[in-house]
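dumping this here before i forget
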Amino acid sequence: MSFGTAVRTVLGQYATFSGRARRSEYWWWSLAYSIVFVVLYVLAIALVGAQAITDPEATSLGAGGAAGAVVLGLLGLFALATFLPSLAVTVRRLHDTGRSGWWYLISFVPFGSIVLLVFSVMDSAPGTNTYGPNPKGVGDAGYGGQGYGAPAQYGAPQQ
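structure:
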């Protein structure tokens, strides 16, 4: 899955918590989110910081400070607008590893984010699980009875 496809998929499934999401979809979305967030944050800090450096005793925001405040507002709107799709793709990624979306709550306990990171880098559960078919399209045919599918042209046993 390419960068643009992943971002379109996540935004297209804005509040879809059912189904499964591949690693590539999750990580391309995470990269896109991080790039936009960091760019807006650095721009806001640069603009607000420039105002503070040029006039540290100013009681009102100048042009740089006002622009920085606008960018910080845009950053807040961006974070708010992407909260639901980010949560949804994380839940679908957990589904892909065979776990309930409720595992997301582990990120609120100490070191729980590390556990969530490990789950997000794990490979898909082979075949169809409780949350739907494998988004990679493998594992349903059962290669050698192990659940890893291989197309028939590569010698997979026929069922």
